[in-house]
Each structure stands twice: as structure tokens, then as C-alpha cells.
Automatic annotation (TrEMBL):
Coiled-coil segments on the chain, per record: none
Signal peptide stretch: none
One GO CC annotation: peroxisomal matrix
Family per similarity comment: Belongs to the DAMOX/DASOX family.
EC nos: 1.4.3.3
Reaction(s) catalysed (UniProt annotation): a D-alpha-amino acid + O2 + H2O = a 2-oxocarboxylate + H2O2 + NH4(+)
Protein name: D-amino-acid oxidase
FAD dependent oxidoreductase domain location: 5-349
Subcellular location: Peroxisome matrix
Single GO MF descriptor: FAD binding
Species whose genome carries this gene: Penicillium angulare
Cofactor(s) essential for the protein: FAD
Binding sites annotated in the UniProt record for FAD: 196
Amino acid sequence: MSNNIVILGAGVSGLTTAYLLSQDPANKVTVLAKHMPGDYDIEYASPWAGANYMPVGKKGSPHQAWETATWAPLKELCEKNPDAGIHFQDTLIYNRKKDQGTAAGNWFAELVQPNPWYMNVVPDFKTLPQSELRSDMDNGQKFTSVCINTAIYLPWLIGQCVKNGAVFKREVFKHIADAANAHHTGQKADVVINCTGLSSKTLGGVLDDKLFPVRGQIVVVRNDPGEMVSVSGTDDGEDEVTYIMTRAAGGGTIIGGCCQENNSDPLPDPNLATRIMKRAIDICPKLVKPGQGIEGLDIIRHGVGLRPYRRGGPRIEKDEVDGVKIVHNYGHGGFGYQASFGCSEETVRLVKEVLQSKPRSKL
Ligand code: FAD
């Protein structure tokens, strides 16, 4: 017996869920979305992400479990599927205790603390000796992580799904239940998986007012420092951060950033861009030639994306709206890639529960 599955949304959450579900030939998967890989839009978070694996889940939380579960699949893609656009990078993390309690400090609290839980997950973890720390840093660590070229990885996921028989269509829905009538077979879907990110705030049948945007501004440059660097905070503002990551396969280096809550301005702020570039060179002088300042950065573009944060954490749960079985998988804030496999595996478990309870047709 086959299962008719509709996935609403083609960001990293929808595509990872489609990738996993389409591996079972019994699942007939239709992915429907307003935006698809290749689009750059303020309503579509996934293309703007760095994206790297910098665990931030609180120890003992489901978030920690999702990030832990995501490391092995990302590592395997790195090792076995270089065409997916993911590569290993040396990673340096610096902590300034004075950032504790700020918006940036709270976001990075688990990432920057000494002996974090993820020291047993990522390879080559090492605490930096005092001699390798600048005087304004209190502690630091080094490990191997990954950086994803989203412009390659998202289309790669689509390619895998299409090879498995999944069908992709552009469509915009005002109500989640309507998506059940848009399965490519013409039959009603057995289940709709909601991966609409921040749009679940306004999508009929969901209207989740726990969602809010956290604005992230980035500069993409051609310079390659050869390592990823993140710092717990800045002296420029409590919701500004510094991170540097180089995407695989010629994707350029992403320099960030900020974490501006409830700010949805899609236009890059030029003053913030200058601060972002200055801070990046300050913490990682290798970005430019000796003696150079921001004039040494070769800018590809400026960008802004909105992280789909949700009070209480992502929503991964079963629901029923107007008689349509739904499984939600949205609200992944600034960690949608690094938790993608963990969250999608949990979604798949819930989808299986829904499918097991569906009425069997009479023989
Ligand atoms: P989205 O990517 O927003 O996708 C939503 C999908 O739903 C789209 O296809 C959209 O068209 C569709 N949709 C919505 N409403 C409708 C509708 N009504 N009808 C039809 N389709 C609809 N995460 C990391 O793990 N590591 C990082 O390094 C990282 N860096 C980031 C840097 C920046 C600057 C930003 C902005 C984010 C970063 N993130 C990072 C977070 C990550 O990008 C998000 O968590 C993730 O992209 C969310 O993906 P999503 O699929 O849930 O939502």
C-alpha cells in the first residue's frame, strides 16, 4: 500500500524531511512551496544561512538531541558525497565572560562554555591554552566542524528526492488543510507535513503566535581565511555577533552578523555591514593581506535573512486541522541546518504513527 504525503515548504526542513521519506518507495511524496532553492527572499530563510554546525542546544534538551543526531549524517555527506557541497573546517570559538546575559551571549551560551556537551560529538576537540588566547578572551576551543554551501546543498537534496520519485511544485497556500488536495496523484494526501518556517505565524489553520523573526545580516566575500571563527559577543551592541565561515566548493566566505529580535527589515544596513567587516578582520586578520582593513575584502554581496525562532523551541508534533492529519516541523531559529536530520528523523517517526493509524481500504 502506498502513502500519499504532502510536504509544505522547500527550505532545509522540508527538503531534509522529503529526502528521508522519499527513500521508502511506499511513500509518494509531493513537495509544494512558494519559494524553491535558487530564490533569495526575506520569507525564505534557508539560502541565507552560513551554514555551519555550531551546537547551541541546552544540555539535556531535545535541541541537544537533535543537534547530536545531525552530526553523523552531515559528517557522512562530507566524506561520501562531496557533490552535496559540505566540507570540514577547522573551527575556533572564543568566549568573553562579559557577554553573558546579552542576546548574543545567551544564543552562544552552550557553544562557548568550557568543556561543552558537544566536545564528545565533534572530532579533534581541544581547549585552547591561555597562551593562544587574546587578552580580551576568557576561554576558547578548537575542533573540526562542517560548513555547508547552501546554494549547492539545497538543490542536491532536491536532486536526491527527485531520483527517489518525489514531485516538486510551486504553490502558495492560505490554509494548511488545502495542501492535502494538491498531491501529485490527484488523490487526497494521507498526511501534510508543515515545514513553512516563519510563515506558520500567518498560515491559516496554524497561526502560531509563538514565532518571531531574529534578523541576521551577512556579508559574503571572496576572501578565504582557511578556518571558521566565532566570538560570544561584541562591544558594538548586545545583539551583534561575529562569525566567519567559508562555504564548500567556491561558495565564498560568510561574515556575520547580528541577532535582532522582531526586526524584519530586508535591507542590509550599511553601517552594520561596516561593523561586521571590521570585527571579522579584527578577530581573524588572515581574512585580508597584512596591513589591510575592510578595503581588503572582496565583496560578493550583502544579505539579510530572518531566523524563524519560536518561544519554547521548534514545533515537531502531530495535529489535525479540518479533518486533515498534519505533522509540524518548523521554528528552527538559527539552527535549522545543524539540527536538520535530528528534527526530520523525529518528524518521520510521527508521520509513521499517523500512517499506521490510517483506515485500511477494504480488499
Ligand atoms: P525556510 O527556509 O524559511 O523555508 C520555508 C519554506 O516554506 C519555503 O519554501 C517557503 O516558500 C515555504 N512556504 C512558507 N509559507 C508558505 C505557503 N503559505 N505556501 C507555500 N509555501 C510556503 N542554521 C544553521 O544550522 N547553521 C547556520 O550556520 C545558520 N546560519 C544562519 C545565518 C543566517 C543569516 C540566517 C538568517 C539563518 C541561519 N541559520 C543557520 C538558520 C537556518 O537558516 C534556518 O533555521 C532554516 O533555514 C529554516 O529552514 P525552514 O526550512 O524551516 O524554513
